[in-house]
Amino acid sequence: MVSVATAAVCHAVTQASFTHVQVSGADPGGEPLEKAIADINGDGKKDIIIGMGNAFGPGGIYWWQCPSGGPTAGSWTKHTIVASGNCYEHSQILDLNGDGKPDLICSYNSNVVWFQHPGGDGTGTWLGPNQIATGIGHEVRLADMDGDGKMDVVTSRTRNIDFQNSSTSWQIVGWGGTASGSALDGMALLDIGSGKGAINIVGATTTGLYWFRNPRETGGNARTGTWTAFKIGDHDTGGPCLATMDVNGDGRMDLVQCPNEGTQGTTGLVWWQAPADRTQLWTKHTIDTNWQAVHWIEPADMNNDGHLDFIISEQEQAHDPSGGPYTYNNDKVGIYYDDGLGNLTFQLLETTGGQNVVSADIEGDGDLDFAFANHGVFGAPHPIELYVNNIVGSGGTGGSLTGGVVGGSTSTYNLTSLGTTDWAHWNGTYVHKSSGGGKISDVTRVGAGNYGTFSETQRNVSWSDGTPTASNGDDQTYIWCNNKQNAGWTFTVPADTTTRTLNVLYGGAAGAVVQITAHLSDSSATDWTNTQTITSGTPLVGTFTYHAASASQTLLITLLKVQDATSPSVDLDAAWLTTSTSSPLMFETENLTVAAQTAGITHRTSPDSRFSNGNGTFFDSTAVGQFVTYDVPNVAIGTYDVRVGIKKWNNKAQWQCAISRLDQQGSATNVGPVVDEYDPNEVFTEVDLGLWTPGSTSDKAFKFTVTGKNASGSGFGLAFDYIKLIPQ
Predict the structure, then answer these.
(1) How far is 647 from 643, CA to CA, in rounded Å?
(2) pTM, whole model, 2 decimals?
(3) Which end of the chain, C or N, has fewer beta carbons within 10 A?
(4) Where are the beta strands (DSSP E) in 412-552?
């Protein structure tokens, strides 16, 4: 973890898992520079739009249609918007003519133009190019800069604001002339907290980084007023890549900067912390000096925790000598996850490079996916690549974590009867179950707040099996923390593949804003967070049911006072832990009846001592859409954690599980994420599909459908060991 805020509390964050899709061949037909995502054909799934440069090939603009079964379910179909022309090198989507269809704004043949969607499924003739402004739009961004209700176009290199009168009439106004030095590439939009939004512009010259204040911020006119420049700080790059987001959670939009093209300097990836008075110099924080040739930084919440992260990619020429030779294997693509307090955790996804990342929810499942491609100018393979986010539906990868918070009671909580596995109570002393083995750890203070104890008649706990205090019939004392934002405590409980339930008794003084977060140490499930304002002194009870994907893990509980320093305290009273005693239901696939399958495909049983019962089943599928369905007998009504034993290997495919009653196979519902059985080595493992609640006791149909294969995989086969249902 890279800590980039001096006073921030370091929190673990969940990292998303992804399915990698190669949308096109290694050469998609040109130099893919401009990227955008939109639902072109109106089928509810988003498509990928690519503007080609003409450094090699005719150029042009094309869109790749998402398969009907989703982004991982087959081949993407290429369609043409315009068959030639030089796109350089950014585009945006906007409905300019009000017909409800996505039009394309782009930099095309050294002009900023737009192409009108033809209607229907988007395969007809696009109308354009329709002129907006002359000159190259190296970066193209959209905002209502003059407050007239119409989106305007802001570009770098030309340094124009193209004010929209209508889709056919534009007023062109330059920006950036009030800063000293020669203009450089790099541009972003900035919100300074006035309530008007991101209507200010960040740019660079040879003398430093500047932000240019929209005249509207001081009551003026954006079209006719002066855009005053304020220096942010110095830089040492030929043309910086810029993005704006609130990095450290102080409510002010900060600036993320990285070398773009040309002189790379030594700064690498940094962020600039915005002061309360934005007109003063900003404070620079170094994230990692080993970044260069980044053409676009994409802020996006990639793990659905409510905080902006950012996607970043180095171009194919990064870390190589000018003029070559170029290696194409040292160019990072990944995500910096932000915990909302300025602590960044990097997830490396590949080292083969990319340019101009764009993000969107491709399949409408509630999480953000992202696409990019190398430009190929220096000889790198340049397929269009897509990373499909699996964070929604999977709860991470392999584990499970659910939570809830309810109002507590003023009656006494008997910790001995509640905490059958362990319990702990904090009253100035760490009191815990004498036979619990300290599974619930003592608390660790977080932040520099004031800490103390207090007694209150609304807080009542008792116990008869404790240590160091053996028993207490009614203890009303608890611990509190105040006088510092983001101060509180953490503690841990054990986690492995066994399902456990933890309850936490906590609260705060009336008016306190209290946040509780649960995090699995192997990041195998999405973090669970609840933030609420306390309305009375009655405590709250947070309940977390969880298991990890592997042994020897922990569940970390973080309890914080997240409002300003002068707000009321956060309080912690007790916690208790129970362990599921229900035995899992095991169904060896070699003993199950095949209820249905794709005709003509071999389903076979094969021995291997590495399978749980010495045998496994193989479905020798050869294409996307082929399936096998197992009859899992007599499953009772209830809630189950569904797990599947599989064999991974280099010829195995990706699959989706869907479950129904055996006599209602036409109404099967997907359970869990798409599972990738590819691995370069033979691996026998278990995957967790999450919770499933059948509404009746009956035989169930477990259908496994091939949805695709890993780009490195050599086949579409499936291999199963068992189906395990763990009662909850």
Answers:
(1) 13
(2) 0.58
(3) N
(4) 413-414, 422-426, 430-433, 444-446, 450-455, 461-463, 466-467, 472-475, 477-482, 487-495, 500-508, 513-520, 528-533, 540-547
